[in-house]
């Protein structure tokens, strides 16, 4: 194994624990930043491009028929193919935390629509489910299994907020383990069925799950109820006959008591387990090789890399699978860096020396997810690394499209988050879009009282129709506080007088001039 440090360019503060990894055609993307997306990348989905050990972020776009995908932290993700050997696939995204720390119960499908050297476009569709729909959660896993020519998705574990009836003021945002139910989701028919297995007694979160054919292996994980990391190794087998599915669970020996570990695949049957935690205050620096053959699993300890002193002495770490046996690891930068919230990043290559040299010749893309910030919950335990296979190939995009965080304005210093009135409840940490025209900032309107001041449209109880009319019409607006004061001061509208066209003078009637002989002739006839 080899360990190499990489540097970030002007955008390291976006690479915070909690976002997730997507891999399309060997190009690695992430989404789920800690805050709401900014105008430079309204989708919140970025390409992670590493060239010459420097990491750059390039924004991706959504198609016009896509739904809105909020930046979700700690969701469950996996790839869905039409069959086990299909080349085309899409990602399933379920659950996770929004920037307002609300938990999502929605499920999305994301697929790649088009890709050029200048622009990458995704399609995101929200799916509706019926039956035993899983509750909102985070820190869980989802996998796809194939049996008898059919496939289903299997969801397990995670955490959720304490039910409203059991909350107290002191522990309003406390979390609990979800029930240890196994959910089978059939997306073809849009139905979901839950199974309670006697072997699964305690809820687990931030565990590792590996799927192969019709079997899923669940390793490690943390239980909040018992404050333990399970040493058990669970084997879930899903049979899909013509009738009802059959789900069985077997407890195997040889498990590892670990949470928040990372798995990367180095061959068709071999995986490497890296990182995680033995306890709240102890990182797991050992590595293991996992071999899956003939419906059997074997876990053996492998040689660990030479960890740097910074990695050994840091209290937390996080990372994600880059694919091809490589892992991206991150540790907090603390006060060692000028940029706040910046992290140090390393690439760990788990293959042999010769294979590592071949990997170094390829310009790599990488992504990292995981490790919740300590302020959201107990230390370490929410530092989940969601691990997905990602090939580390280069994406030769134009550097001009690189996202530069310095180009963004500091939203905390702008007028969008002011207290516009006494009843203003707009807060940068809890705000969610209210109007369909809003994306990452609240809609505001100028009050024309005095020198003028800005107010939030939502605080003024403006309907979306009125807001649109005011934005399109060139009229003065007065907020709720100044509307009465300015009623008598409003300038009456100027009456535009209609210009009447000038009347044309009457024309004189033309008279016929008669000659003298004609007049005499006329008089003779008149008196005869």
TrEMBL record:
Stretch forming the signal peptide: none
Family annotation (InterPro entries): Gal_Oxase/kelch_b-propeller (IPR011043), Kelch-typ_b-propeller (IPR015915), RAG2 (IPR004321), RAG2_PHD (IPR025162), Znf_FYVE_PHD (IPR011011)
GO biological process: chromatin organization; V(D)J recombination
Cited Gene3D superfamilies: Kelch-type beta propeller, Rag2 PHD finger
Localization terms from the record: Nucleus
GO MF annotations in UniProt: sequence-specific DNA binding; zinc ion binding
Segments forming domain Recombination activating protein 2 PHD: 415-492
GO cellular component: DNA recombinase complex; nucleus
Pfam families per UniProt: RAG2 (PF03089), RAG2_PHD (PF13341)
Protein residues bound to Zn(2+): 420, 424, 447, 453, 456, 459, 479, 482
Keywords: Chromatin regulator, DNA recombination, Metal-binding, Nucleus, Zinc, Zinc-finger
Main localisation: nucleus
SUPFAM superfamilies associated with the record: FYVE/PHD zinc finger, Galactose oxidase, central domain
Similarity comment: Belongs to the RAG2 family.
PANTHER family registered for this protein in UniProt: V D J RECOMBINATION-ACTIVATING PROTEIN 2, V(D)J RECOMBINATION-ACTIVATING PROTEIN 2
Protein name: V(D)J recombination-activating protein 2
Primary gene name: Rag2
């Amino acid at each position: 194994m080899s360990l190499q440090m990489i540097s970030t360019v002007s955008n390291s503060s976006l690479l915070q624990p909690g976002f997730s990894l997507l891999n399309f055609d060997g190009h690695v993307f992430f989404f789920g930043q800690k805050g709401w997306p900014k105008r430079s990348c309204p989708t919140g989905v970025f390409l992670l491009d590493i060239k010459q050990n420097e990491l750059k972020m390039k924004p991706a776009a959504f198609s016009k028929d896509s739904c809105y995908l909020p930046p979700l932290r700690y969701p469950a993700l996996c790839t869905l193919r039409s069959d086990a050997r299909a080349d085309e696939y899409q990602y399933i995204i379920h659950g996770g935390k929004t920037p307002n720390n609300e938990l999502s119960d929605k499920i999305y499908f994301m697929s790649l629509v088009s890709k050029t050297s200048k622009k990458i476009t995704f399609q995101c569709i929200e799916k509706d489910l019926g039956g035993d729909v899983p509750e909102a959660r985070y820190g869980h896993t989802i996998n796809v299994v194939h049996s008898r020519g059919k496939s289903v998705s299997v969801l397990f574990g995670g955490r959720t907020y304490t039910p409203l009836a059991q909350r107290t003021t002191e522990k309003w945002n406390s979390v609990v383990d979800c029930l240890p139910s196994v959910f089978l989701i059939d997306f073809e028919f849009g139905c979901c069925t839950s199974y309670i297995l006697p072997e699964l007694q305690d809820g687990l979160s931030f565990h590792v799950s590996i799927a192969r054919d019709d079997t899923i292996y669940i390793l490690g994980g943390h239980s909040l109820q018992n404050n333990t990391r399970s040493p058990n190794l669970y084997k879930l087998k899903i049979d899909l006959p013509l009738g009802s599915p059959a789900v069985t669970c077997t407890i195997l020996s040889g498990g590892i008591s670990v949470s928040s570990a990372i798995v990367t695949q180095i061959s068709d049957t071999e995986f490497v387990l890296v990182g995680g935690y033995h306890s709240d205050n102890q990182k797991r620096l050992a590595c293991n090789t996992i071999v899956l053959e003939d419906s059997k699993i074997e876990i053996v300890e492998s040689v660990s890399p030479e960890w740097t002193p910074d990695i050994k002495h840091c209290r937390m770490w996080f990372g994600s699978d880059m694919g091809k046996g490589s892992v991206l690891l991150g540790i907090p930068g603390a006060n060692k860096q000028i940029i706040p919230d910046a992290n140090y990043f390393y690439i760990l290559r788990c293959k042999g020396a010769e294979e590592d040299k071949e990997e170094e010749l390829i310009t790599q893309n990488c992504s990292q997810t995981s490790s919740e910030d300590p302020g959201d919950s107990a230390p370490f335990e929410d530092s989940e690394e969601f691990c997905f296979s990602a090939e580390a190939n280069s994406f030769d995009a134009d550097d001009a499209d690189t996202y530069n965080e310095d180009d963004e304005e500091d939203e905390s210093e702008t007028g969008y988050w002011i207290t516009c009135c006494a009843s203003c409840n707009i807060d940068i940490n809890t705000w969610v879009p209210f109007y369909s025209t809003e994306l990452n900032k609240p809609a505001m309107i100028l009050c024309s009282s005095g020198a003028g001041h800005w107010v939030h449209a939502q605080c003024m109880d403006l309907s979306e129709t009125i807001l649109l009319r005011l934005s399109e019409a060139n009229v003065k607006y007065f907020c709720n506080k100044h509307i009465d004061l300015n009623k008598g001061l409003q300038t009456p509208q100027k009456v535009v007088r209609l210009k009447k066209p000038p009347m044309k003078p009457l024309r004189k009637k033309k008279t016929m001039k008669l000659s003298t002989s004609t007049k005499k002739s006329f008089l003779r006839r008149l008196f005869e």
